[in-house]
């Protein structure tokens, strides 16, 4: 089968590999019907994910059809259409039992698919702990509607859940990339008083204006002032930092009102300064990143009910054998790309 593979730092390539086999009773083999490319794939390519293993098939955003299951799998059967979770988790350890599945203590717990074990930019993928890692897609939900459930949408859902947003809140979301938009969609479900999105790219600002006209938009230069003007208590009640730069981190805590919750969704590529003396007296609550992707069944239900729609994010479609070109477009942010579907 065809598999897009992490060959060495700076190099991915389309290679021919044998179709994966069941190696454990809790495995399933899934025929990938639709996949996507994530910024994390680019992080692997550029060598900034040290635990990624060369030779591994990349890709951790996908949906498909179950081909085969191990004898210990009970929740899905061959022929089921499923979403695949970015995280591998056993469902039994202390962290899994508490819903902190990102910290599953299994050898492959956390983000393994498309990083340490073969992922989904391929024709088939082996999914360990299939009862945890797969969710059945309702018949009325299409592959494109379900494509982001296991990764970026799970991230947005988790981030808004832990941020405990209420209807009285002004919520600030910093960064309107794909994960920022998923965070926005999930925040909208909580009906806060205002949602402010801070984004510097004119293209993305246009996208937000076009699809979500009720959302207030500001740019980084103007953000602090804008938030002050549009909130009741001297800053945002909840801040979700999805942009991932030094400046966006500083903006996140500066735009928060005293006693606000600041949720860090972003992944930074270098250590940041946490200037406690400057924050002193603001009594902020920080929550830090690493999605616990265990709400996929609930997310699929919300999609089925028409409450979440991520299909506008899919701006481009490529076949698996054109994936080099898909990466070129995604990596260089060409042609207004937000997300790419690989079929
Ligand atoms: Zn991802
Ligand atoms: Zn576990």
From TrEMBL:
Its cofactor is Zn(2+). Keywords: Metal-binding, Oxidoreductase, Zinc. GO terms for molecular function: oxidoreductase activity; zinc ion binding. Signal peptide: none annotated. InterPro entries: ADH-like_C, ADH-like_N, ADH_Zn_CS, GroES-like_sf, NAD(P)-bd_dom_sf. Pfam families: ADH_N, ADH_zinc_N. Residues 180-284 form the Alcohol dehydrogenase-like C-terminal domain. Residues 26-130 form the Alcohol dehydrogenase-like N-terminal domain. Belongs to the zinc-containing alcohol dehydrogenase family. This is Alcohol dehydrogenase catalytic domain-containing protein. It comes from Parabacteroides merdae.
């Amino acid at each position: 089968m065809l598999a897009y593979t992490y060959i060495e730092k700076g190099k991915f390539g389309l290679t021919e590999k044998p179709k994966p086999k069941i190696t454990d009773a809790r495995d399933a083999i899934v025929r990938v019907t639709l996949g996507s490319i994530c910024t994390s794939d680019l992080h692997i390519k550029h060598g900034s994910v040290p635990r990624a293993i060369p030779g591994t098939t990349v890709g951790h955003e996908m949906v498909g059809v179950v081909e085969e299951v191990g004898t210990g799998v009970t929740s899905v059967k061959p022929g089921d259409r499923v979403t695949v979770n970015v995280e591998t988790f056993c469902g039994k350890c202390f962290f899994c039992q508490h819903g902190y599945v990102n910290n599953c203590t299994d050898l492959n717990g956390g983000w393994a698919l498309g990083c340490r074990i073969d992922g989904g930019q391929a024709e088939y993928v082996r999914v360990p702990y299939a009862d945890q890692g797969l969710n059945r897609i309702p018949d009325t939900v299409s592959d494109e509607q379900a494509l982001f459930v296991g990764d970026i949408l799970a991230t947005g859902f988790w981030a808004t859940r832990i941020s405990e947003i209420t209807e009285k809140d002004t919520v600030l979301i910093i960064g309107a990339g794909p994960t920022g938009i998923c965070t926005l969609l999930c925040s909208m479900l909580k009906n806060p008083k205002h949602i402010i999105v801070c984004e510097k790219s004119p293209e993305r600002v246009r996208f937000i204006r076009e699809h979500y006209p009720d959302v207030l938009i500001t740019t980084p230069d103007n953000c602090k002032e804008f938030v002050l003007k549009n909130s009741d208590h001297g800053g945002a009640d909840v801040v979700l930092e999805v942009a991932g730069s030094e400046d966006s981190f500083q903006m996140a805590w500066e735009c928060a009102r005293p006693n606000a919750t600041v949720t860090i969704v972003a992944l930074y590529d270098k250590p940041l300064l946490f200037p406690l003396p400057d924050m002193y007296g603001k009594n902020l609550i920080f929550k830090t990143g690493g999605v616990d992707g265990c709400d996929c069944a609930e997310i699929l239900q919300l999609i089925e009910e028409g409450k979440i729609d991520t299909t506008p994010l899919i701006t481009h479609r490529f076949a698996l054998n054109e994936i080099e070109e898909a990466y070129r477009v995604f990596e260089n942010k060409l042609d207004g790309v937000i997300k790419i579907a690989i079929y």
